[in-house]
Write a structure and sequence with these properties.
348 residues; mainly alpha; 3-stranded mixed β-sheet; 3 strands; 75% helix; globular; disordered N terminus
């Protein structure tokens, strides 16, 4: 039971609705929405992030670990981008065009999350402003959805290359590649705008402590003083269902690709399996935690932090390793780029 003295909308209702008067449902909804906006603006100006651990010794170890992972992520992905941009043969290939785009997104995703984690591990005051929280949610979901669509484009590229090799250059032309990139950014922008439109309107009455290392939708919902069931279902539909559908499509597409390899030569099978194996590994690493995180009722589990660390911090670091480990062509391109760069530095 919520008393009228403790509930802002209740005071308005008691003042405006007399005994026996019919309750105007739209008015109630409007008052709750307005009160939520006032609460956000008046009472919650910043959030306190509890982070990964409260143990000072563990925090020191995690600081070194996350700093190393972040630096490895940035250097590894930038090396991929630089190699592709400086290799005309690779840059002209749709597969490597999308790989360069994926690596660029990995740099951005990691930079949205990891620096804040690293700073908080050595800071006594682990806070983030309300605006900063909304910006982090917006940027993370924008980049994550763009990455999902690029992974889908990469699967389509492999399908055309293996199943329709004679039509590959006709289908996968530069115009289609640019359209797919535009769709990736437009889809990410639409998705993150919808998420933030609802997240920014959650009535937050306090406390302002988020039991997480980043701002995200489910931890933020726990701070709301209103019923968040409908919002939770919206998140599950907008994020969870989207992940399930795309993940299922990707698994089916790679299943079709692997099935079609029966008639290929041994060398063709080996090369195709090497490429597709890398793609499948990245897809599973990225979508597995995402599906579990968002395709469920709005419940927060204790191991959610581990899952989010995995696909926001660790996966962007692993992608360069996965894509280059068994790709002889790309390893040769990296070696050539590295030798050329070193030679230029030595001649200066």
């Amino acid at each position: 039971m919520v008393s009228s003295s403790s509930c802002g909308p209740c005071r308005f209702l008691h003042a405006g609705v007399g005994a026996g008067s019919p309750i105007n449902i739209p008015t109630v909804v409007a008052l709750r929405f307005s009160w939520g906006i006032m609460q956000n603006q008046s009472f919650v100006s910043e959030f306190v992030l509890l982070g990964i651990s409260q143990n000072p010794d563990v925090q020191k170890v995690l600081f070194v670990l996350f700093l190393f992972v972040y630096l490895a992520t940035i250097s590894g992905n930038l090396l991929i981008v630089a190699t592709i941009l400086n290799s005309p043969q690779l840059l002209g290939s749709p597969m490597y065009f999308f790989l360069a785009s994926l690596s660029s997104l990995d740099v951005c995703v990691s930079s949205v999350i990891a620096p804040k984690i690293i700073v908080d591990l050595v800071s006594e005051k682990k806070t983030i402003s309300f605006a900063g929280c909304m910006i982090q949610i917006f940027c993370f979901h924008l980049l994550a959805v763009a990455e999902v669509i690029i992974l889908t484009a990469m699967a389509f590229d492999r399908y055309v290359a293996i199943c329709k090799p004679l039509h590959y250059t006709t289908i996968m032309n530069s115009r289609l590649c640019n359209i797919l990139m535009g769709v990736a950014w437009a889809g990410g922008l639409l998705h993150s705008s919808i998420q933030n439109a609802f997240a920014s309107q959650l009535p937050l009455c306090g406390p302002n402590i988020i039991n997480h290392f980043m701002c995200d939708l489910y931890p933020l919902m726990k701070l709301s003083c209103a019923d968040t069931y409908e919002f939770g279902m919206m998140v599950a539909a907008n994020s969870g269902l989207f992940c399930i559908v795309i993940f299922s499509m990707l698994l089916v597409s790679y299943g079709v690709i692997l099935f079609s390899l029966r008639g290929h030569s041994t060398e063709g099978k080996r090369k195709a399996l090497s490429t597709c194996g890398s793609h499948i590994a990245v897809v599973v690493l990225f979508f597995g935690p995402c599906v579990f995180e968002y395709a469920r009722p709005p419940i927060v589990f204790s191991f959610d932090k581990i899952l989010e660390i995995f696909y926001t911090v660790l996966t962007p670091m692993l992608n360069p390793v996965i894509y280059t480990f068994r790709n002889k062509e790309f390893k040769n391109a990296i070696r050539k780029f590295w030798n050329t760069s070193m030679a230029k530095l030595c001649t200066k």
